[in-house]
Amino acid sequence: MRHRIVGELMTPAVVHVRPDTGFKEIARLLAEHDITAVPVLDDEDRPLGLVSEADLLVNEAAQEDPAGLMPAPDLPPRERARSRAATAVGLMTRPAVCARPEWTVVEAARVMQGEHVKRLPVVDEAGRLVGIVSRGDLLRVFLRHDSAIREEIRAEVLRRVLGVDPDTVDVTVRDGRVTLAGTLDGGGPAEVVERLCRSVDGVVDVTSHLGHHTVPTAARHRSG
Q1: φ, ψ (nearest 5 deg) of residue 203
Q2: What is the pLDDT of residues 91-112, one digit of tens each?
Q3: Which of 29, 73, 162, 188 yields a CA-CA distance of 20 to 30 A from 126?
Q4: CB proximity list for 221: less than 8 A, separation 6 or greater
């Protein structure tokens, strides 16, 4: 079974900055390109970190309240230093959590969730930036047509992987929700079929009404 990979979903042309890029220039780039973060690259185009809108807002949040109604925030030392930074090297969140082009959507999604990040710079074997992948990019797999999901389940899961005649299983897909019905002659337990269907890109949920043919006791004795 073939899964979509990061290299197919990432944005290859990446707006980036250098460590000495100034605060206002970063803010201008975010607004001009309608993006929420930029990677910070060293001289060899390796990601050092990322500067996001949230990083820039640390500076704004640390300012004195013009009306004098709110006390100055009590920031941890690192956040206080970032609030006074004027260039990317001081503003960025580091280190950069990166992905590889050959990662599957599942791998990238797990890293995003585990590291609590919204995007991952994508790097080659030498660690140089080749793209960036966001949560929205990964969610594009759920835009697959129901007909394409159904065909993959029939051709890949049932026929090729499990060796089951796909015409013996009724596969319906609606809005990414898969329903399986029928009686299996082989291919393993229904739970295995359901698990494999869940792994197909674009599947939201699987409901299984599968059963197995059973051999009558007398027939089993005769065959023995």
Answers
A1: -80, 130
A2: 999 999 999 999 999 999 999 9
A3: 29
A4: none
Please state, in angstroms and rounded to a whole number, the distance separating the CA atoms of residues 36 and 11: 14
Alpha helix (H) ranges present in the chain? 6-9, 23-33, 53-61, 77-83, 88-91, 105-115, 135-138, 146-152, 190-198, 217-223
- H or E stretch at 20: none
CA 124 → CA 47, 104, 132, 136, 137, distances in Å? 11, 15, 12, 22, 19
Tokens 């393993």 identify what position?
188
Length of the chain: 224
CA distance 91 to 30: 14
Q: Whole-model pTM? A: 0.76
Where does residue 185 rank: exposed (0-12), middle (13-18), buried (19+ CB within 10 A)? exposed
Residue in 211, 152, 208 with CA at minimum distance from that of residue 184: 211
Cα 129 to chain centroid distance, Å, stands at 18
- The pLDDT of residue 185 is above 90: no
